[in-house]
Sequence to fold (426 residues):
Amino acid sequence: MFGPKTHCVVVVGAQWGDEGKGKVVDVLAERADLVVRYQGGANAGHTVDTGTGEFVLHQIPSGIIQGAVCLVGNGVVLDPETFFQELDGLVARGVKVEHRIFISDRAHLTLPYHKLLDQAREARERLGTTGRGIGPTYEDKYGRRGVRVGDLRDAGRAADLVAGRVAAANEMLTMLGARELADVAEHRRLVERLAPRLLPLAIDAGRVVYEALERGESVLLEGAQGALLDVDHGTYPYVTSSHTTAGGASVGAGIGPTAIDAVLGVVKAYTTRVGNGPLPTEAEPATAERIRKLGGEFGATTGRPRRCGWFDAVVVRYAVRVNGLTGLAVTKLDVLDTFAEIPVCVGYLLDGEAFDSMPADLDRIDRVKPIYETLPGWRQATGAARRLADLPPPARAYLDRLQDLARCPVRYVSVGTRRDQIIEVS
Ligand code: IMP
Ligand code: MG
Fold:
């Protein structure tokens, strides 16, 4: 991926998240100097299987396992308590983190009151959020009343800011009829306790990325969630609260869009979604269950069973467009190894007429009917393939069809969870 003309690469999810970005970032991070998370927060769950151990990362960039220097960008909403739990967990397993992880002083903090608000809203709105306080933290950010990492430098001001926010949150929680309110003293203590650990990691992250690129280093910008969960481009309101698409990488890492050289979209060879909202190619229960079992499709953050269905080329074509994807990484091809036939959605019918893109409104998305094309399966294990030529011809034909439908070249194919189970298409 990285080369003389490619120093800055964005990796994004091109479906509804859980496409296998953690694995792809881990593989690419071998050649990256810097890995930057740029949006989302503790809602993400990125799984890395090194072959000798499995790591699930929520807030720390997946590049940490390969030893890259990792940054949490300004676009991320950071839950400091679970961040340090995650960090301590890595240290306990022998991962070197010292001088390898830094946080933008412009990143906003997710505090316990945000989680209470998320849960109280969820009880009414039923979006199927992860309950990690993501939406309320972004609301505070855009309402210009958030608490940023850098705010902790002035302990007195931070304490006042947090007290004010907790009081306002409690008014809202009362209105929502929440059973539990936030505690001011507890929040003050939390911020006081975390500041001495957080502040030494706080930096001007955008500047660090800029200077690394100036020196000709390789930078990987790691997205979380997927294009169809983007607050602008996703299946609104069943979306997350950040810009998961490649444009978010520029804003959330603190660099200009001209600094980005390539955008790799990660897609599963089929489709999953966790949480509520439309999923046009959702399979009937028995097939969904079969895919779920074969693919281990349970949320890495919440453990919820993921909804499963067939590859949706309308979704991926849309993701190619809104992200400006320059390549695809197709993951979990091996999960389809036992199917005799594999349906692929090539377009939608909306009220009897062909419709070639993702409609904006839920009502129309709910009414689309996928048009399927059925491709032959290969009924052969693919987990040992390391070159395209190692794959059975029907599996190669399947990949060819996906890239034609998506209108974007396949650059990587993942055939298992392990780091070594990857094909780089040359
Ligand atoms: P939130 O991000 O917790 O507010 O949840 C909003 C929606 O995004 C819900 O449907 C979640 O299930 C979904 N979501 C959030 N993070 C992830 C993720 O990392 N993978 C897949 N879905 C996610
Ligand atoms: Mg995930």
Summary: The CA atoms of residues 10 and 120 lie 34 Å apart. The longest strand covers residues 341-350.
